[in-house]
Amino acid sequence: MKILVLCNKSPWPKREGGPIAMYAMISGLIQAGHSVKVLAANTIKYTVDPETIPADFKEKTHIEFVDIDLSITVPGALFNFFSGKSYHVTRFHTKTFANKITDVLRRDTYDIIQLETLQMATYLDILRRYSKAAVVLRAHNIEHKIWQRIAENCTNPFKRFYLNHLYHSLRRFEIGILNKMDGIIAITPVDARNLDRLSHSTNIISIPFGINLESLDENPVQPQEASLFHIGTMNWYPNEESIKWLLAEVWPAVTRKLPAIELHLAGRYMPDWLLKLKVPHINVDGEVPDVWEYMQKYSIMVVPLFSGSGIRIKIVEAMAAGKAIITTAIGAEGINYENGVHLLIAKDAKSFTDAIFKLCNDKTLRDTLGKNARLLIAKEHDNNKLMLKLTAFYTELVKKKQA
Predict the structure, then answer these.
(1) Is there a single domain that holds both residue 197 and residue 255?
(2) DSSP string, 316-369
(3) How does pLDDT run across 63-84, given as a tens digit for each residue?
(4) Is the Cβ–Cβ distance between 325 and 315 less than 8 Å?
(5) What is the pLDDT of residues 341-356, one digit of tens each?
(6) Which among 85, 166, 234, 383 has most CB atoms closer than 10 A?
(7) How far apart are CA 322 and CA 336, in angstroms?
(8) 402 compared with 122, residue with greater pLDDT
(9) Cα(342)–Cα(356) distance, integer angstroms
């Protein structure tokens, strides 16, 4: 099949969850024998020099970029507030990107047009005008659910009012666009069920983030004892919110009982308040060159998420690395885990603190959780098997479209 993939950011480099998930699926589709063309937005939030794209990936995808200015402006925010349109989506709609889509569709025909994230659905009318392909939304999250949770957790009444506006306008767009898709790919079974309830579509499938385990080292270096780590892009609000909560609600109790424990924080776009943080045994490492190598150094991953949807790519990667993980039910969404077997689930500060004590004092449990986690990923997140499932789904969509 010939597949056009529209991306809200470049799938390369693989520096955060979205690009990692996009790269895995694009590479998997190519490996499965499909012809894939990629058109990606290049933004200030994820700026890429096209010359740095690996030659092999560039040759196989014929990737092209369009610059999009995602700057938030007061006039833009006010206009969208009174227009009722979603500011999250309209910022991605530009004449330049629309013209590039038109050029691509005039040059070639496709069986499938895959939209990576909801933002790319803003171009649906153009896609329908210039192509007869089946248009599929790959939903990395249920976007409005993220902003609903963020608004609910906000204590500032004025900020909460505006966050509620963003949530409601995004929800209207998301539900409306779901019913215009030929197919929907959810990244978790939970999201698939929720998307099914929100839409009238019968063409919904769950394809989780896939990993090629055979390419990853199963024998990591011996990690530091009594060491915690977190990896996440910190300009994504749920990640910053989670670290603030961890440091305020959990860390003081942990250090009173385990004074030698260390916490390592990695990820892009570290906020100033974290970079300026001067607390013993907290190491703010920022963006690291090799995430896999970084994870091998430490014992326990902590992911105290209280908002967000979809699947946490870094948790799946850490499970593949055989790491012991403490997270929340929201953090573990989309993973077919058993609490206490594959990872530990905590619901509040006390249970999170207790879980840290438990794992720091029990190496056997850490090793067992890590081994079970890797086995689960091998069973349910094998990228080659997932692409066979996706190919079958796309084949049926094309048949329906042509009928």
Answers:
(1) no
(2) HHHHHTT-EEEE-TTTTTTS---BTTTBEE--SHHHHHHHHHHHHT-HHHHHHH
(3) 999 999 988 777 777 777 777 7
(4) yes
(5) 999 999 999 999 999 9
(6) 234
(7) 16
(8) 122
(9) 15
